[in-house]
Structures
1.
Amino acid sequence: MKEKAMFFEKLKDKIHCYLCPHNCVIEDGHVGKCQVRLHENGELFSINYGMITSMALDPIEKKPLHYFKPNSYILSVGSFGCNFTCSFCQNYTISQYIPPSQFMSKEDLVETILNAEDNIGIAFTYNEPSIWYEYVYDTAKLLKETDKNKSVVLVTNGYISEEPLKALLPYVDAMNIDLKAFSNRYYNDICGGSLKPVLKTIELSAKSCHVEITTLVVSGENDNIDEIGELSSFLSNINKDIPLHLTRYFPRYKMKSPPTDIDFMYKAEETAKKYLNRVSLGNI
Ligand code: SF4
């Protein structure tokens, strides 16, 4: 469904979207880099509003969140689109393409959240929630107004501008933020983004809600001990208790390099533990 977007300004015959740091300037009849924000006759629309591609009741540990309401289940939903183009994307069928989806109003989603048995709330995941902003914001707000004890979780790449992030944070209880690497080159070449805005998102979010970080360690790209040290040191300066999930890469989508060396994963864990109290390995 098409819904009027937030966080844009009209230029002469174009539109500037400032939801995320890409700051797209979009011509009439075109979409931004995320493929889901459309300029139509001087207005910007979210074209994935309420469009759901996946829904499941997942263990919270699968997000991954290891220190937020452990051993619970959370209703998890995703749409389509992404503001990154990671070569190794695990969910490229919904992040880089527009697959079949089904509309669900925010009221119906809130009712589903409340009626699902043993469910602690809602996780916006699978594709990037920040470019699903209007629906995520509306649903999170309605859920909190209906039952403030239900949790709202975001699993995100953290590539969102400060103003929309600050508007959403009051309704968010926990986030898993990807810190894909600690180099701008990696963000540019592999993800189509930049590092600095993600670091800002982590700093701001950690002041407001529970935050855990995931870093996919990719062979030949960010499997560098010094970089793991710098990344861990940055997180420890915010809070030494921020959990860091170091996940082993396996070939996927366009990235064909071999799986990350297991010995390196253990070395990375050892290095991260010099700075952080909660480090775990994934995909080992
Ligand atoms: S949200 Fe989409 S349209 Fe807006 S700036 Fe980011 S990539 Fe561009």
2.
Amino acid sequence: MTLGEWIPAATERLTQAGVTSSRLEAQLLAAHVLLVDRTYVLTHPEVELNELAAEGLLQRRESQEPLAYILGHREFFGRRFRVTPSVLIPRQETELLIETALELMVPVKRVLDIGTGSGCIATTLKLERPDWDVWAVDISGAALQVARENAETLGAEITFRHSDLFSGLAGERFDLIVSNPPYIGVEEELPVEVRSFEPGTALFAENRGLRIYELISEVYRDYLTPGGSMVLEIGQTQGEAVAGLFGGEVLKDLSGNDRVVVGRV
Ligand SMILES: C[S@@+](CC[C@H](N)C(=O)[O-])C[C@H]1O[C@@H](n2cnc3c(N)ncnc32)[C@H](O)[C@@H]1O
């Protein structure tokens, strides 16, 4: 089958499966099979596709597996991060946390990223501010492995620690602590694409998603230097609760939803 035949057929099947950007995703799947970019797919309708390989990927997407896990990567802040089912797929909303951290009007030398997952936050901060000493922790060893790989591939030198929040950081102090912790309430409704495929430890927290913020708020002062800052991603209904825990300010994302809390000590 040629690309010109396969793309419309695959687009139709993905639409039937409820995939919103079905044409784009069909093109990206075909590009992945051919090891080419999307422009090539768009400009070479006559090229033959390995139908068996393409069918396998198409069926995975039809069963709601996220495209990023099928392709094995996702763009974040203009860079490509490898993702596996052990890590949360980096979200565009998290770029607000990055922008906020980069624009803080305070001197920063040491930074800690709690719950680094793919390493997208820590790696981006290090590459944007090479003079920062960036540390990153995660409770998941499998996630840390992916984060280490991403940091190495992208040329970011980061200190990684396997740690339950601050447990592996005794005696360390940071000028800035950032985190996009799990913040979804266990009972919240989620698309199958998220609930059935992304790691539960990256998504869910007790107490309507607030538990990790509460745990961090109990001890973070012991790990911040005087005048240090916290920048936390939050769920859109959590602004008041999390700002209350950290005495911070709530920032909105491009969609107008509460998305980040900034706190200072
Ligand atoms: C929402 S994901 C964020 C991943 C990545 N920072 C991002 O923004 O895409 C939360 C991460 O926190 C980690 N995590 C959950 N509980 C933790 C804990 N108690 N201590 C350290 N990391 C934890 C999870 O393994 C997951 O990688």
3.
Amino acid sequence: MTLEKKHISAAIILIAAAVISIITGRQFLAKHYPETFYPSPGLTRTGKLSDYFSGLQGTENDSRVYFFEGEEEGSTVLLLGGTHPNEAASGLVAVLVLENVEVTVGRLIVIPRANRSGFTVNDPMEAHPQYYSIPTPNGERRFKYGSRLTSPLDQWPDPLVYSHRPSGQRLSGFETRNLNRAYPGRPDGSLTEKTAYGIVQLIKKENVNVAFDLHEAAPEIPIINAIVYHEKAEEVALNAIFELEMEGISVSPELSPSNFHGLSHREWGDYTDVYPFLMETSNPIQGRLRGETSAELIVEGVSPEYRMALESGALQIAYKETGEPIERRVARHVTCFRRVIEAYNQLGNKPVILENLPEYEDILQNGVGAYIVAGK
Ligand SMILES: [Zn+2]
């Protein structure tokens, strides 16, 4: 190759690298713009997590907090979505609730993006899409699909072994960026620990009585279609699950293990007066057996590979013949959330009355898009 040809090749490679950098750089930056939500007219005020712990000010995880306060005094409920931003139904349910709910008695506090940093990246090596879309009567609405963990750009490097404070429990190093292994959190810890600390401060300062942490998991994970509860909330959980079973919604009751630390359903209950509940639905895109990985898999939940596993009978999986569509996962979470609050009210506690939320069958029939505002 002559010197001139070498120069031309080098120039082409440089230009191609610049074009790729600009395109991917723009995509990367776009993941940092906050999503727009459209709260219902029942919204009374908003705040930020830094209102409860100033150490979060100016960080990616100074998440927005939405308040819906009834005219009549009652108990206070907290709903957390997006602890793990790769668990789509979790964040979507929080959006559906905040865009519809009317509170007549008591208060509801919603944090739709608990670990906002995790929404700015995807999990490495998973081929996950950056976004997924929900069809609404007025067009598609796009949501961010993120990572289970805090972004390494916000918290780095991971230790070889993560030592949970104050229990001293040891986990793999990457778990240091898992919000649901960080409770009760530390004011002088990592960003993930600070976020957990801020949420616990909110529970204390707002005197939250009942708190929900919404999740999804791979179909082959044993704790699925489940409500995990702290022992002090057992009566409420079992009453709610009885009601759900009567409606034909099968939910497994899971008592929070007392020796596994860092989890919302354990530490919220141990460190505050709240009754904590964690809920799980089945999301095939998180599973090891899934085949083609796409935004459609998040929404439609149809995986021929999981169907084969179901038909073989060789594996205990939470996967139905028709798949695990987002409608059913969202309907499950919304209904479990409502039934737990109703059980709490029926057991003689100061009530919380939430109105204008769809029933299980409504969401299955009309789709999630019928209950969220159409937008970008
Ligand atoms: Zn999760």
